[in-house]
UniProtKB/TrEMBL annotation:
It is an enzyme of class 4 (lyase). Residues 141-155 have a biased composition (Pro residues). This is L-2,4-diaminobutyrate decarboxylase. It comes from Streptomyces achromogenes. The lineage of its organism: Bacteria, Bacillati, Actinomycetota, Actinomycetes, Kitasatosporales. Residues 137-181 are annotated as: Disordered. Coiled coil: none annotated. It holds the Pfam family Pyridoxal_deC. It comes from the Bacteria. Its cofactor is pyridoxal 5'-phosphate. Residues 156-166 have a biased composition (Low complexity). Keywords: Decarboxylase, Lyase, Pyridoxal phosphate. Belongs to the group II decarboxylase family.
Length: 492
Protein backbone atom coordinates (compact mmCIF):
# COMPACT_ATOMS: atom_id res chain seq x y z
CA UNK A 1 0.00 0.00 0.00
CA UNK A 2 1.24 3.51 -0.80
CA UNK A 3 1.78 5.97 2.00
CA UNK A 4 -1.61 7.26 3.23
CA UNK A 5 -1.91 11.01 2.58
CA UNK A 6 -1.87 13.59 5.37
CA UNK A 7 -4.65 16.05 6.19
CA UNK A 8 -2.40 19.12 6.14
CA UNK A 9 0.74 20.03 4.30
CA UNK A 10 1.04 20.69 0.57
CA UNK A 11 -1.24 17.82 -0.47
CA UNK A 12 -3.62 18.05 2.47
CA UNK A 13 -6.54 19.77 0.78
CA UNK A 14 -6.30 17.65 -2.34
CA UNK A 15 -6.27 14.53 -0.22
CA UNK A 16 -9.20 15.65 1.90
CA UNK A 17 -11.50 16.82 -0.89
CA UNK A 18 -12.46 13.37 -2.26
CA UNK A 19 -12.59 11.94 1.25
CA UNK A 20 -15.00 14.69 2.28
CA UNK A 21 -17.15 13.83 -0.71
CA UNK A 22 -17.12 10.24 0.50
CA UNK A 23 -18.06 11.30 4.02
CA UNK A 24 -20.91 13.52 2.85
CA UNK A 25 -22.22 10.77 0.59
CA UNK A 26 -22.05 8.22 3.40
CA UNK A 27 -23.81 10.60 5.81
CA UNK A 28 -26.64 11.04 3.30
CA UNK A 29 -26.91 7.33 2.56
CA UNK A 30 -26.93 6.45 6.25
CA UNK A 31 -29.56 9.05 7.12
CA UNK A 32 -31.77 7.87 4.24
CA UNK A 33 -31.61 4.27 5.35
CA UNK A 34 -32.48 5.31 8.92
CA UNK A 35 -35.45 7.36 7.80
CA UNK A 36 -36.28 8.71 11.27
CA UNK A 37 -34.78 10.27 14.38
CA UNK A 38 -33.03 7.03 15.41
CA UNK A 39 -32.65 3.50 14.06
CA UNK A 40 -35.58 1.14 14.46
CA UNK A 41 -35.17 -2.19 16.22
CA UNK A 42 -33.42 -1.29 19.45
CA UNK A 43 -29.95 -2.15 20.73
CA UNK A 44 -29.71 -5.71 19.31
CA UNK A 45 -30.56 -4.66 15.77
CA UNK A 46 -28.19 -1.70 15.81
CA UNK A 47 -25.39 -3.75 17.36
CA UNK A 48 -25.79 -6.43 14.69
CA UNK A 49 -25.49 -3.85 11.90
CA UNK A 50 -22.40 -2.33 13.47
CA UNK A 51 -20.78 -5.73 14.02
CA UNK A 52 -21.43 -6.70 10.45
CA UNK A 53 -20.11 -3.43 8.99
CA UNK A 54 -17.02 -3.42 11.15
CA UNK A 55 -16.04 -7.02 10.76
CA UNK A 56 -12.55 -7.45 12.13
CA UNK A 57 -11.65 -4.12 13.79
CA UNK A 58 -7.95 -4.76 13.22
CA UNK A 59 -7.64 -6.71 9.97
CA UNK A 60 -4.25 -7.78 8.73
CA UNK A 61 -4.83 -5.92 5.46
CA UNK A 62 -6.67 -2.66 5.10
CA UNK A 63 -9.96 -1.89 3.37
CA UNK A 64 -10.09 1.32 1.26
CA UNK A 65 -13.88 1.48 1.67
CA UNK A 66 -13.69 1.60 5.46
CA UNK A 67 -14.46 5.33 5.58
CA UNK A 68 -17.65 5.01 3.60
CA UNK A 69 -18.76 1.80 5.28
CA UNK A 70 -18.28 2.98 8.84
CA UNK A 71 -19.55 6.53 8.37
CA UNK A 72 -22.64 5.18 6.65
CA UNK A 73 -23.15 2.68 9.48
CA UNK A 74 -22.76 5.32 12.13
CA UNK A 75 -25.17 7.66 10.36
CA UNK A 76 -27.70 4.88 9.84
CA UNK A 77 -27.48 4.03 13.51
CA UNK A 78 -27.40 7.60 14.84
CA UNK A 79 -29.84 9.40 17.08
CA UNK A 80 -29.88 12.53 14.93
CA UNK A 81 -30.35 15.72 16.97
CA UNK A 82 -31.20 17.54 13.73
CA UNK A 83 -34.37 15.44 13.43
CA UNK A 84 -37.22 17.36 15.08
CA UNK A 85 -38.46 14.21 16.85
CA UNK A 86 -35.06 13.69 18.52
CA UNK A 87 -35.64 15.91 21.55
CA UNK A 88 -34.64 14.06 24.70
CA UNK A 89 -31.40 15.45 25.98
CA UNK A 90 -29.21 18.54 25.97
CA UNK A 91 -27.89 17.09 22.74
CA UNK A 92 -27.90 19.83 20.15
CA UNK A 93 -27.77 19.69 16.38
CA UNK A 94 -24.44 21.37 15.59
CA UNK A 95 -24.38 24.28 13.18
CA UNK A 96 -22.85 23.47 9.80
CA UNK A 97 -20.41 26.36 10.10
CA UNK A 98 -19.21 25.16 13.51
CA UNK A 99 -18.73 21.63 12.20
CA UNK A 100 -16.78 22.96 9.22
CA UNK A 101 -14.53 24.89 11.60
CA UNK A 102 -14.05 21.73 13.63
CA UNK A 103 -12.90 19.96 10.49
CA UNK A 104 -10.23 22.63 10.03
CA UNK A 105 -9.08 21.96 13.59
CA UNK A 106 -8.84 18.26 12.80
CA UNK A 107 -6.76 19.00 9.72
CA UNK A 108 -4.37 21.42 11.42
CA UNK A 109 -4.35 19.52 14.70
CA UNK A 110 -2.97 22.25 16.94
CA UNK A 111 -2.45 21.29 20.57
CA UNK A 112 -2.91 23.88 23.25
CA UNK A 113 -0.36 22.64 25.75
CA UNK A 114 2.43 24.78 24.35
CA UNK A 115 2.74 27.80 22.09
CA UNK A 116 5.01 25.99 19.64
CA UNK A 117 2.14 23.58 18.86
CA UNK A 118 -0.54 26.23 18.51
CA UNK A 119 0.77 29.76 17.86
CA UNK A 120 -2.42 31.27 16.43
CA UNK A 121 -4.86 28.90 18.11
CA UNK A 122 -3.56 29.85 21.56
CA UNK A 123 -4.03 33.57 20.89
CA UNK A 124 -7.50 32.92 19.49
CA UNK A 125 -8.40 30.99 22.62
CA UNK A 126 -7.11 33.80 24.83
CA UNK A 127 -9.20 36.41 23.04
CA UNK A 128 -12.30 34.23 22.95
CA UNK A 129 -12.16 33.22 26.60
CA UNK A 130 -11.62 36.83 27.68
CA UNK A 131 -14.58 37.94 25.60
CA UNK A 132 -16.87 35.23 26.98
CA UNK A 133 -15.76 35.93 30.54
CA UNK A 134 -16.49 39.61 29.95
CA UNK A 135 -19.92 38.62 28.66
CA UNK A 136 -20.62 37.08 32.06
CA UNK A 137 -18.79 39.44 34.39
CA UNK A 138 -18.94 42.72 32.49
CA UNK A 139 -16.32 44.29 30.31
CA UNK A 140 -13.08 45.40 31.98
CA UNK A 141 -12.43 49.09 32.25
CA UNK A 142 -10.56 50.48 30.38
CA UNK A 143 -11.33 48.41 27.32
CA UNK A 144 -8.59 45.99 26.28
CA UNK A 145 -6.39 47.20 23.43
CA UNK A 146 -7.26 46.10 19.94
CA UNK A 147 -4.63 44.97 17.48
CA UNK A 148 -1.72 42.63 18.12
CA UNK A 149 -0.85 42.04 21.75
CA UNK A 150 2.82 42.88 22.30
CA UNK A 151 3.29 40.98 25.54
CA UNK A 152 2.68 37.26 26.00
CA UNK A 153 -0.49 36.34 27.83
CA UNK A 154 -0.33 33.73 30.54
CA UNK A 155 -2.24 33.16 33.73
CA UNK A 156 0.30 34.89 35.94
CA UNK A 157 2.72 37.38 34.30
CA UNK A 158 0.64 40.55 34.51
CA UNK A 159 -0.87 39.96 37.92
CA UNK A 160 1.83 41.69 39.97
CA UNK A 161 0.93 45.06 38.51
CA UNK A 162 -2.73 44.45 38.95
CA UNK A 163 -2.51 43.51 42.60
CA UNK A 164 -0.27 46.41 43.58
CA UNK A 165 -1.68 48.56 46.42
CA UNK A 166 -2.33 51.36 43.94
CA UNK A 167 -5.09 49.20 42.47
CA UNK A 168 -7.26 49.85 45.50
CA UNK A 169 -6.31 53.50 45.91
CA UNK A 170 -7.03 54.49 42.35
CA UNK A 171 -9.75 52.14 41.13
CA UNK A 172 -10.98 54.53 38.44
CA UNK A 173 -7.75 54.59 36.49
CA UNK A 174 -6.17 51.21 37.17
CA UNK A 175 -7.85 48.28 35.47
CA UNK A 176 -9.21 45.57 37.74
CA UNK A 177 -7.92 42.18 36.63
CA UNK A 178 -10.34 41.08 33.94
CA UNK A 179 -12.30 37.91 34.41
CA UNK A 180 -10.99 34.91 32.54
CA UNK A 181 -12.27 31.56 31.35
CA UNK A 182 -10.92 28.12 30.62
CA UNK A 183 -12.08 25.95 27.76
CA UNK A 184 -13.27 22.54 28.94
CA UNK A 185 -14.70 19.38 27.48
CA UNK A 186 -18.07 20.30 28.93
CA UNK A 187 -20.02 21.04 32.06
CA UNK A 188 -18.64 18.07 33.94
CA UNK A 189 -15.01 19.18 33.57
CA UNK A 190 -15.97 22.81 34.24
CA UNK A 191 -17.77 21.86 37.47
CA UNK A 192 -14.83 19.73 38.49
CA UNK A 193 -12.43 22.64 37.93
CA UNK A 194 -14.75 24.98 39.84
CA UNK A 195 -14.58 22.71 42.88
CA UNK A 196 -10.83 22.35 42.54
CA UNK A 197 -10.27 26.14 42.40
CA UNK A 198 -12.59 26.57 45.39
CA UNK A 199 -10.70 23.93 47.36
CA UNK A 200 -7.38 25.59 46.55
CA UNK A 201 -8.77 28.87 47.93
CA UNK A 202 -10.62 27.53 50.99
CA UNK A 203 -8.77 24.35 51.86
CA UNK A 204 -9.70 20.66 52.01
CA UNK A 205 -12.50 21.14 54.55
CA UNK A 206 -14.54 22.96 51.91
CA UNK A 207 -18.06 21.56 51.80
CA UNK A 208 -20.19 21.58 48.68
CA UNK A 209 -23.76 22.71 49.26
CA UNK A 210 -26.12 22.22 46.35
CA UNK A 211 -29.71 21.41 45.57
CA UNK A 212 -31.13 18.02 44.70
CA UNK A 213 -31.75 19.72 41.34
CA UNK A 214 -27.99 20.17 40.74
CA UNK A 215 -26.12 18.21 38.11
CA UNK A 216 -24.75 14.84 39.24
CA UNK A 217 -21.24 15.90 38.24
CA UNK A 218 -21.03 18.28 41.21
CA UNK A 219 -21.25 15.73 44.07
CA UNK A 220 -19.12 13.44 41.93
CA UNK A 221 -16.41 16.12 41.68
CA UNK A 222 -16.54 16.52 45.48
CA UNK A 223 -15.95 12.78 45.78
CA UNK A 224 -13.15 12.87 43.23
CA UNK A 225 -11.42 15.74 45.04
CA UNK A 226 -11.75 14.06 48.43
CA UNK A 227 -13.94 16.83 49.85
CA UNK A 228 -16.30 16.26 52.78
CA UNK A 229 -19.69 14.69 52.06
CA UNK A 230 -21.75 17.35 50.21
CA UNK A 231 -24.93 18.79 51.66
CA UNK A 232 -27.71 18.15 49.17
CA UNK A 233 -30.69 20.39 49.87
CA UNK A 234 -34.17 19.21 48.92
CA UNK A 235 -35.73 21.20 46.07
CA UNK A 236 -39.45 20.37 46.14
CA UNK A 237 -40.29 23.36 43.94
CA UNK A 238 -37.56 22.41 41.45
CA UNK A 239 -35.21 25.21 42.50
CA UNK A 240 -33.05 25.98 45.54
CA UNK A 241 -34.95 27.73 48.29
CA UNK A 242 -33.00 30.68 49.83
CA UNK A 243 -34.49 30.00 53.29
CA UNK A 244 -33.24 26.41 53.17
CA UNK A 245 -29.80 27.59 52.10
CA UNK A 246 -29.77 30.23 54.82
CA UNK A 247 -30.51 27.56 57.41
CA UNK A 248 -27.68 25.37 56.13
CA UNK A 249 -25.14 28.18 56.01
CA UNK A 250 -25.95 29.17 59.59
CA UNK A 251 -26.08 25.66 61.08
CA UNK A 252 -23.42 23.66 59.23
CA UNK A 253 -19.72 24.36 59.70
CA UNK A 254 -17.97 25.92 56.71
CA UNK A 255 -16.18 26.80 54.59
CA UNK A 256 -18.95 26.34 52.02
CA UNK A 257 -19.09 26.23 48.27
CA UNK A 258 -22.65 26.82 47.17
CA UNK A 259 -23.43 25.52 43.70
CA UNK A 260 -26.55 26.99 42.10
CA UNK A 261 -27.97 26.00 38.74
CA UNK A 262 -29.07 28.23 35.87
CA UNK A 263 -30.98 25.77 33.74
CA UNK A 264 -31.55 22.46 35.52
CA UNK A 265 -30.92 19.41 33.41
CA UNK A 266 -34.29 17.84 34.19
CA UNK A 267 -36.61 20.83 33.93
CA UNK A 268 -34.66 23.83 32.64
CA UNK A 269 -35.35 25.82 35.81
CA UNK A 270 -33.18 28.64 37.13
CA UNK A 271 -32.38 28.89 40.83
CA UNK A 272 -33.13 32.33 42.37
CA UNK A 273 -29.63 33.59 41.66
CA UNK A 274 -29.73 37.12 43.20
CA UNK A 275 -31.13 35.85 46.52
CA UNK A 276 -28.65 32.97 46.66
CA UNK A 277 -25.77 35.29 45.77
CA UNK A 278 -26.77 37.70 48.54
CA UNK A 279 -26.81 34.86 51.07
CA UNK A 280 -23.39 33.65 49.97
CA UNK A 281 -22.07 37.16 50.30
CA UNK A 282 -23.51 37.53 53.81
CA UNK A 283 -22.16 34.19 55.00
CA UNK A 284 -18.79 34.37 53.24
CA UNK A 285 -19.60 31.32 51.13
CA UNK A 286 -18.11 30.83 47.72
CA UNK A 287 -20.63 30.67 44.87
CA UNK A 288 -20.45 28.57 41.74
CA UNK A 289 -23.24 28.79 39.17
CA UNK A 290 -23.68 25.89 36.81
CA UNK A 291 -25.11 27.58 33.72
CA UNK A 292 -24.18 24.69 31.42
CA UNK A 293 -27.66 24.84 29.92
CA UNK A 294 -29.00 28.31 30.72
CA UNK A 295 -25.80 30.21 29.91
CA UNK A 296 -26.93 30.53 26.29
CA UNK A 297 -29.52 33.06 27.46
CA UNK A 298 -26.65 35.57 27.67
CA UNK A 299 -26.97 36.02 23.91
CA UNK A 300 -30.70 36.76 23.95
CA UNK A 301 -31.80 40.35 24.58
CA UNK A 302 -35.27 39.07 25.43
CA UNK A 303 -34.12 36.53 28.01
CA UNK A 304 -30.76 37.65 29.30
CA UNK A 305 -32.31 39.14 32.43
CA UNK A 306 -33.22 35.61 33.58
CA UNK A 307 -29.50 35.28 34.37
CA UNK A 308 -29.32 38.31 36.65
CA UNK A 309 -27.04 37.36 39.52
CA UNK A 310 -24.75 35.25 37.36
CA UNK A 311 -22.06 37.93 37.65
CA UNK A 312 -21.99 37.45 41.44
CA UNK A 313 -20.60 33.93 41.12
CA UNK A 314 -16.91 33.22 41.70
CA UNK A 315 -17.08 30.68 38.88
CA UNK A 316 -19.59 29.93 36.14
CA UNK A 317 -19.97 26.81 34.00
CA UNK A 318 -21.11 27.29 30.40
CA UNK A 319 -21.69 24.62 27.76
CA UNK A 320 -21.84 25.77 24.17
CA UNK A 321 -22.58 22.26 22.99
CA UNK A 322 -26.04 22.86 24.45
CA UNK A 323 -27.61 26.29 23.79
CA UNK A 324 -24.67 27.19 21.53
CA UNK A 325 -25.08 24.62 18.75
CA UNK A 326 -21.47 23.44 18.79
CA UNK A 327 -20.29 19.95 18.02
CA UNK A 328 -19.04 18.27 21.20
CA UNK A 329 -16.92 19.45 23.00
CA UNK A 330 -17.41 23.11 23.84
CA UNK A 331 -17.42 23.77 27.57
CA UNK A 332 -16.20 26.74 29.54
CA UNK A 333 -15.42 27.65 33.12
CA UNK A 334 -15.47 31.40 33.69
CA UNK A 335 -13.58 32.73 36.70
CA UNK A 336 -14.32 36.16 38.14
CA UNK A 337 -10.93 36.58 39.81
CA UNK A 338 -8.16 35.37 37.50
CA UNK A 339 -5.86 34.98 40.54
CA UNK A 340 -7.79 31.80 41.25
CA UNK A 341 -6.22 30.28 38.16
CA UNK A 342 -2.71 30.45 39.59
CA UNK A 343 -3.67 27.23 41.45
CA UNK A 344 -3.48 25.45 38.10
CA UNK A 345 0.01 26.67 37.33
CA UNK A 346 2.14 23.69 36.43
CA UNK A 347 5.65 23.21 35.18
CA UNK A 348 6.99 20.73 32.66
CA UNK A 349 10.31 21.74 31.23
CA UNK A 350 9.60 20.50 27.71
CA UNK A 351 6.42 22.60 27.49
CA UNK A 352 6.96 25.76 29.56
CA UNK A 353 10.60 26.13 30.60
CA UNK A 354 11.15 29.28 32.68
CA UNK A 355 13.62 30.72 30.21
CA UNK A 356 11.13 30.21 27.36
CA UNK A 357 8.43 31.96 29.36
CA UNK A 358 10.80 34.79 30.30
CA UNK A 359 11.74 35.12 26.64
CA UNK A 360 8.08 35.70 25.82
CA UNK A 361 6.66 32.32 24.83
CA UNK A 362 3.14 32.11 26.30
CA UNK A 363 2.77 29.55 29.07
CA UNK A 364 -0.37 27.54 28.32
CA UNK A 365 -0.04 24.57 30.64
CA UNK A 366 -1.97 26.21 33.48
CA UNK A 367 -5.06 26.66 31.31
CA UNK A 368 -6.23 23.10 31.78
CA UNK A 369 -5.65 19.85 33.63
CA UNK A 370 -5.28 18.20 30.25
CA UNK A 371 -1.99 18.23 28.37
CA UNK A 372 -2.66 17.63 24.66
CA UNK A 373 -5.69 19.77 24.00
CA UNK A 374 -7.79 20.41 20.93
CA UNK A 375 -8.60 24.07 20.08
CA UNK A 376 -12.37 23.96 20.56
CA UNK A 377 -12.12 27.74 20.59
CA UNK A 378 -12.02 27.88 16.80
CA UNK A 379 -15.53 26.55 16.13
CA UNK A 380 -16.92 28.75 18.92
CA UNK A 381 -15.15 31.85 17.58
CA UNK A 382 -16.28 31.09 14.04
CA UNK A 383 -19.87 30.66 15.22
CA UNK A 384 -19.94 33.87 17.27
CA UNK A 385 -18.38 35.88 14.46
CA UNK A 386 -20.58 34.35 11.74
CA UNK A 387 -23.88 34.74 13.58
CA UNK A 388 -23.12 37.63 15.87
CA UNK A 389 -24.85 38.03 19.20
CA UNK A 390 -28.19 38.71 17.51
CA UNK A 391 -27.94 35.61 15.34
CA UNK A 392 -27.14 33.33 18.25
CA UNK A 393 -29.70 35.06 20.47
CA UNK A 394 -32.34 34.48 17.80
CA UNK A 395 -31.64 30.74 17.90
CA UNK A 396 -31.95 30.74 21.70
CA UNK A 397 -35.25 32.62 21.48
CA UNK A 398 -36.56 30.28 18.81
CA UNK A 399 -36.08 27.10 20.82
CA UNK A 400 -37.47 28.74 23.97
CA UNK A 401 -40.50 29.88 21.93
CA UNK A 402 -40.92 26.32 20.64
CA UNK A 403 -41.09 25.16 24.23
CA UNK A 404 -43.88 27.66 24.94
CA UNK A 405 -45.77 26.46 21.86
CA UNK A 406 -45.42 22.83 22.89
CA UNK A 407 -46.58 23.66 26.41
CA UNK A 408 -49.64 25.42 24.97
CA UNK A 409 -50.47 22.38 22.82
CA UNK A 410 -50.18 20.12 25.87
CA UNK A 411 -52.35 22.39 27.99
CA UNK A 412 -55.00 22.43 25.28
CA UNK A 413 -54.91 18.63 24.98
CA UNK A 414 -57.44 16.91 27.27
CA UNK A 415 -55.38 13.69 27.44
CA UNK A 416 -52.10 15.28 28.50
CA UNK A 417 -50.80 16.90 31.64
CA UNK A 418 -48.15 19.66 31.59
CA UNK A 419 -45.68 19.73 34.47
CA UNK A 420 -45.12 23.50 34.42
CA UNK A 421 -44.77 26.38 31.97
CA UNK A 422 -41.23 26.20 30.55
CA UNK A 423 -38.47 28.62 31.52
CA UNK A 424 -35.91 27.48 28.95
CA UNK A 425 -36.52 24.93 26.18
CA UNK A 426 -37.46 21.90 28.31
CA UNK A 427 -41.07 20.74 28.51
CA UNK A 428 -42.20 17.96 30.84
CA UNK A 429 -45.53 16.27 30.35
CA UNK A 430 -47.31 12.95 30.70
CA UNK A 431 -50.52 11.35 29.61
CA UNK A 432 -53.15 12.23 32.19
CA UNK A 433 -53.89 9.31 34.55
CA UNK A 434 -51.03 7.16 33.22
CA UNK A 435 -48.94 5.17 35.69
CA UNK A 436 -45.19 5.74 35.93
CA UNK A 437 -44.67 2.36 34.29
CA UNK A 438 -46.88 3.37 31.39
CA UNK A 439 -44.89 6.61 30.97
CA UNK A 440 -41.62 4.67 30.94
CA UNK A 441 -43.09 2.19 28.42
CA UNK A 442 -44.18 4.94 26.05
CA UNK A 443 -40.68 6.37 25.98
CA UNK A 444 -39.06 2.97 25.36
CA UNK A 445 -41.58 2.02 22.69
CA UNK A 446 -40.88 5.23 20.76
CA UNK A 447 -37.14 4.54 21.05
CA UNK A 448 -37.29 0.90 19.98
CA UNK A 449 -39.50 1.64 16.98
CA UNK A 450 -37.25 4.52 15.99
CA UNK A 451 -40.17 6.97 16.07
CA UNK A 452 -38.98 9.57 18.56
CA UNK A 453 -36.32 10.21 21.19
CA UNK A 454 -37.88 11.58 24.37
CA UNK A 455 -36.22 11.88 27.75
CA UNK A 456 -37.53 11.10 31.21
CA UNK A 457 -37.41 12.98 34.48
CA UNK A 458 -38.69 12.12 37.94
CA UNK A 459 -40.13 15.21 39.58
CA UNK A 460 -42.71 15.69 42.33
CA UNK A 461 -42.59 11.96 42.89
CA UNK A 462 -43.82 11.14 39.39
CA UNK A 463 -42.22 10.17 36.10
CA UNK A 464 -42.52 12.65 33.23
CA UNK A 465 -41.70 12.56 29.55
CA UNK A 466 -39.04 15.16 28.86
CA UNK A 467 -38.60 17.09 25.64
CA UNK A 468 -35.52 19.26 25.38
CA UNK A 469 -36.05 21.40 22.31
CA UNK A 470 -32.72 22.47 20.81
CA UNK A 471 -33.50 22.37 17.11
CA UNK A 472 -34.17 25.86 15.77
CA UNK A 473 -35.56 24.37 12.53
CA UNK A 474 -38.40 22.55 14.28
CA UNK A 475 -41.86 23.55 12.95
CA UNK A 476 -45.21 23.62 14.73
CA UNK A 477 -46.28 20.52 12.77
CA UNK A 478 -43.35 18.60 14.33
CA UNK A 479 -44.59 19.44 17.80
CA UNK A 480 -48.09 18.20 16.98
CA UNK A 481 -46.61 15.05 15.45
CA UNK A 482 -44.66 14.43 18.64
CA UNK A 483 -47.77 14.66 20.79
CA UNK A 484 -49.68 12.43 18.38
CA UNK A 485 -46.96 9.78 18.69
CA UNK A 486 -47.23 9.87 22.49
CA UNK A 487 -51.00 9.67 22.26
CA UNK A 488 -50.81 6.74 19.84
CA UNK A 489 -48.52 4.83 22.19
CA UNK A 490 -50.51 5.49 25.35
CA UNK A 491 -52.36 2.43 26.64
CA UNK A 492 -56.12 2.99 26.66
C1 LIG B 1 -25.18 18.99 30.76
C2 LIG B 1 -24.96 19.53 32.10
C3 LIG B 1 -23.73 19.35 32.74
C4 LIG B 1 -22.68 18.42 32.22
O1 LIG B 1 -22.14 18.89 31.04
P1 LIG B 1 -21.34 17.89 30.07
O2 LIG B 1 -21.03 18.81 28.94
O3 LIG B 1 -22.32 16.82 29.71
O4 LIG B 1 -20.17 17.41 30.78
C5 LIG B 1 -23.52 20.00 33.94
N1 LIG B 1 -24.49 20.76 34.48
C6 LIG B 1 -25.70 20.93 33.91
C7 LIG B 1 -26.72 21.78 34.58
C8 LIG B 1 -25.97 20.30 32.70
O5 LIG B 1 -27.17 20.45 32.14
Amino acid sequence: MSMPPLASGPEGSDALRPLLATVLDALDAGARSRGGPLPAGGPHTVAAHVREALGDPLPEHGDPDALHTLVRTLAAGAADPAHPLCAAHLHCPPLAVATAADLAVSALNPSLDSWDQAPAASELETLLTQALAAEIYGHPNPAPPTGPTPAPKGPTPTLNDLTAPTTRRRPATVPTPPADALVTTGGTEANHLALLLARETHGPALRLVCGANAHHSLPRAAWLLGLPEPVILPTPTGVLDPATLHHTLTTRPGPHLVAATAGTTDAGLIDPLPALAALCHTHGARLHIDAAYGGGLLFSDRRRSLLTGLEAAHTVTLDLHKLGWQPVAAGLLAVRDPHDLTALHHHADYLNADDDTEAGLPDLLGRSLRTTRRPDALKIAVTLKTLGRSGLGALVDRVCDHARQLADLITAHPGLELHAPPTLSTVLFRPAHATDNAVADIRRRLLIHGHAVLGRARLDGRLWLKTTLLNPHTRPADLTALLRLVEGNTPA
